[in-house]
Each structure stands twice: as C-alpha cells, then as structure tokens.
Design brief:
rod-shaped, 5 strands, 382 residues, Heat Shock Protein 90, alpha+beta
Length: 382
C-alpha cells in the first residue's frame, strides 16, 4: 500500500501515532542520564557508550520498535548493542542506570516477551547489585529486591508486548475492513451501472428501434419505390440492426437463467448470418468468466456484422490444460491485416473486459481470408 493511502490512514492507530512521542522520550532520558553523570561526578567516559546507544537506535532501534514485535533483523542487532554499550557505561559510571527507564521498554517494544526479558535481566542485574552493595544491604535482601524489580519489569514488558500485538491486530482488521468496503463499493457501482444500462436499453428499444421499424413499414408500403426509397430502406435496416445490437450489448447478459452453452446458442440463433456453434465442457465455468465470454461473443458477432461481409461464422469454446478456457470467433469474410489497423471501440471494450479477468485477446486474419478473434481466460475449477 502506498504511503498516504486511505487504508494506511485508517490503519494508523494510537500505537503508531505514539512513536514520535517515544522518540522524544528516549531523547529526554538519554540527555537526562548524561546530565546526571556530569553533575554527580561520574566518569565522562560513560557518555561515549551512551551516545553509541543513540547511534544504534537511529540505525536499527527506531525501525525495530516500529515493526511487529519479534522482527529478527535490526531488533537483535540493536538489543545486542544495548547490552554491550550499557554494561560498559554502567561499569564506569553507575549513574548510567537511569537510562534503563528507556532501554527496558525499548527491548519489549522491539522483541518478543521471552528474548526481551533476557535483555532486561542482562542490563538490569548489574546495576541492581551495584546499588544494593553500595547501600550495604544483606545479600538476601539484594536478591529479593532484584527478583521483585525484575518481576515488576517483566509484567510491564508483557503488558507492552500484548498491547503491541493488539494494536497490530487492530491495524490488520481495519485494513481488511477498508478493503471490504472498497470491494462493496465496486460491487454497488457495477450494480448501478448494470441497472442504468438496462434502463438505457429499454429506452432505445422503445424509441429508436420502434422508430426505425415504423420507417421501414412506411417505406415498404410505397407503391413504386424508386432508387432513393430503396436506399432509405437499406439505411433504415442497417440502423435497426445497429440499434438491436446496441440493445443486446446494454441489456443484462444472455446468461440470466441459462447455461453458457444455451446463451451462446441463443446469440447464434439471433444473428443475421448462419453461426456454427461448438461448445465443449461449458459446465463449471465461473459466472464472471461466463458473462465475459457471452459479452465477448456479442462484440465479436457485432464486428462480423459491421465489417466482415461474411457468409458464415464459427464460434468455438474449448477448455485448455492449466485451468484456462478458450473461445474463438472466426468468419469467412473479407478479412484484414490486424498489424495495419488499430482496434476499434468494440475490440478495445473486449480487451478491457477480458484483461480485467487476467485473460488475453488475439486477432488474426489477412485480406480475403477472413478474421478470427481468439479469447483465453483463466478458469479456476473448470
């Protein structure tokens, strides 16, 4: 998904929006730790590993905490760097332990709970022992204090880990919801387009088609039709045929209530020229593929009627290996060289419809030898 997309914006939850605040918190803790070392008389040498931790955060850690917990690439590099560099800083300046308030949560944000707990123990045990020894506490008290503090830190880490998981799951669900909404919007749009096309087909049938039919009836009733009248009748017949083809293209697909083989047969019977139909294994074709095949057959036959000047047409449907179906529409008309002629609107619409379903359209032919339109579509389950 591209940056700034609707899904990204919707999926950006409170956890994601908190990252800039986390960066600021880490910076404040690091500066505060350095200040305490300087003010409290700690060794300035400890500042070097702390600055190296900041560099590790910029190089690996910042990306690691923004990834789902457990991402193993930069998370492990940053965790190892924190252990080594913090231990070095704590050895020379115990005041560096203040940095743990940022380093321990960072471990749980970038790692799963178990490895994060290991990192926590590795960084926390040394400073805890040092503090208790400096206070002169009994070893048993030191051990109990370490156990209690580590337990509390572990519980906090588990909470951070679960919070991160829940937010990642929420982001996934929101993204899935947005995809579903987009799909529903597309389905609704297509349904509206189909309804509008059906309405337009009815309007054309009730106006233009009826008008051309009336013109033909009036012209045929002329007692002595001259050349101009005969030409007017030819034009009216051609436009009536065009109008009927337009109505067929706009109306709901011929598949309604019929099998693919029956729909193709119905198209062939309604065509002006003899059409030889051969269908093999039409059962099991998905509805979307079947509708595309019927629409493509409509377009192909319309092109034959408009341009081919053919005597007969062949329409064949075959299943291929690899879950594909092939339909060919061939005629014995005047033909043309596809390489020298650009696609008309009908072929462009045909290619667009088939390409959306992952198929291909190939046009072959030569002048005087007819034309063949070859359509191949993926057909899962066929």
């Amino acid at each position: 998904m591209g940056e700034g997309s609707v899904v990204d914006a919707r999926a950006e939850n409170a956890w994601l929006r908190s990252y800039p605040y986390w960066d600021a918190y880490f910076g404040v803790v690091l500066v505060a730790t350095i200040a305490i070392i300087v003010v409290d008389g700690g060794s300035p040498v400890a500042i070097v590993p702390l600055l190296l931790i900041a560099a590790s955060y910029a190089l690996w850690g910042r990306t690691a905490v923004r990834r789902p917990p457990g991402w193993v690439g930069k998370s492990r590099w940053h965790a190892a760097s924190m252990i080594v560099l913090f231990t070095a800083a704590d050895v020379v300046a115990p005041q560096a332990a203040v940095a743990l308030s940022a380093l321990i949560p960072m471990a749980f944000m970038s790692l799963r709970a178990a490895p994060a707990a290991v990192v926590m123990v590795a960084m926390f045990t040394g400073p805890a022992i040092q503090i208790m020894i400096d206070l002169g506490s009994h070893p048993v008290v030191v051990a109990l204090a370490i156990v209690l503090v580590l337990s509390a830190a572990a519980l906090l880490g588990v909470f951070i880990d679960r919070l991160g998981r829940q937010n990642s799951e929420r982001a996934r669900l929101i993204a899935e919801l947005d995809r579903t909404r987009e799909e529903l919007a597309e389905v609704s749009k297509e349904a509206g387009m189909l309804a509008e096309r059906e309405r337009l087909a009815g309007d054309i049938h009730d106006t233009l088609a009826q008008g051309f039919t009336g013109i033909l009836m009036v012209l045929q009733a002329a007692d002595e039709p001259d050349r101009h009248v005969r030409r007017a009748m030819e034009i009216a017949r051609e436009n009536l045929a065009e109008t009927r083809a337009l109505i067929a293209a706009l109306a709901p697909p011929a598949l309604d209530g019929a099998s693919l083989e029956e729909a193709l047969g119905r198209l062939a019977r309604g065509f002006e020229l003899p059409v030889e139909v051969s269908v093999s294994g039409s059962a099991g074709v998905p509805p979307a593929v079947a509708e595309a095949l019927v629409r493509t057959a409509q377009e192909g036959l319309a092109n034959v009627r408009k341009h081919a000047r053919a005597g007969t047409v062949r329409l064949e449907l075959r299943h291929l290996d690899g879950g594909r179906v092939r339909m060919s529409i061939g005629d014995d008309g005047r033909g043309f060289d596809p390489a020298t002629v650009s696609d008309g609107y009908g072929l462009r619409a045909m290619r667009s419809r088939v390409t959306r379903l992952g198929g291909t359209v190939t046009v072959t032919g030569s002048p005087g030898a007819g034309t063949t339109i070859l359509v191949e579509l993926p057909c899962s389950g066929c």
